[in-house]
Design brief:
It is globular, with a radius of gyration of 17 Å. It has a domain of 174 residues: Alpha/Beta hydrolase fold, catalytic domain (Rossmann fold), CATH 3.40.50.1820. By secondary structure, the protein is of the alpha/beta class. Strands 1-3-2-4-5-6-7 form a 7-stranded mixed β-sheet, sandwiched between helices. Helix 1 links the parallel strand 2 and strand 3. Helix 1 crosses helix 11 and helix 4 runs antiparallel to helix 8.
Length: 254
């Protein structure tokens, strides 16, 4: 039995296919609460917390755990929503258990971290290796993930992210950094045969629109890239209505 913690919206009686949402580095199931609230009338959404605490955590162990979770909880193929690192996990899940995937939504993600992000995360992990906590790091990280528009229009969203970010275990976060910067799902991209959607923020530094366009161009059926104005790397928190509208439009096609 999978021990993955999760949040659920909607229910098994929902008419559309279930969604399984996988967060990125430093995130959690809470990333997808706004989306769950906006799709729950028609779709069941399961948002998981990745099991990051194990010292033996790896992309492979996460893919296996998520696959078990889908088999136990979803009872049918899912629309896999992968944010950032979750995009790499979604692609690796496709390679491992494609029969459990109906469609995929890539949010702020590319198959391998960009070189400048690799350098940023490597430096951060090195600095944190000797730290006892993430205290003070919320404010250091938030300018890299939020649009300037979000700082102006939705400061409470930024503050909540910073607070929750600092509540993580520093050891778990560093471990996840190392896992992410060592991951590469590029070879899987041309094998994907289910419908896909790519979403990113206009101000996303980790997965800017041009990088996402290059990524999805390698899919057998390249989808357009939905670019959310006034959003950075976390469009589901920054522009929840616009993000949900894009997702719901895609769900009507699959």
């Amino acid at each position: 039995m999978s021990q993955i913690q999760f949040e659920e919206f909607g229910g098994p009686a929902s008419s559309g296919p279930p969604l399984l949402a996988v967060h990125g580095l430093g995130g959690g199931a809470y990333f997808f609460r706004a989306l769950g609230e906006r799709v729950q009338s028609t779709h069941r959404l399961l948002a998981i917390d990745l099991p990051v605490a194990s010292p033996h955590a790896s992309m492979a162990s996460w893919v296996e755990a998520i696959g078990d979770f889908v088999a136990e909880r979803a009872a049918q193929p899912v629309v896999l929503v992968g944010h950032s690192m979750g995009t790499i996990l979604a692609l690796q899940a496709w390679a491992a258990w494609p029969e459990r995937i109906r469609a995929m939504i890539f949010v702020g993600g590319v198959p391998r971290v960009l070189p400048r992000i690799h350098a940023r995360l490597s430096e951060r992990a090195d600095l944190l290796e000797q730290s006892a906590s993430l205290a003070g790091w919320g404010r250091k990280v938030s300018p890299g993930v939020f649009s300037p528009a979000t700082f102006t229009a939705r400061p409470a969203v930024v503050e909540a992210f910073e607070r929750l970010f600092e509540m993580q275990s520093v050891a778990d976060y560093v471990r996840c950094c190392r896992i992410l910067i060592g991951a590469d799902a590029s070879a899987i991209v041309p094998t994907v045969t289910v419908p896909c959607l790519a979403v990113t923020g206009q101000d996303d530094q980790y997965a800017p629109p041009d990088a996402v366009a290059t990524f999805v161009a390698r899919l057998p059926v390249p989808p357009p890239v939905a670019v959310i104005d006034g959003a950075g790397h976390l469009p589901f928190l920054e522009q929840p209505d616009a993000f949900a509208a894009v997702v719901k439009a895609f769900l009507r096609t699959c």
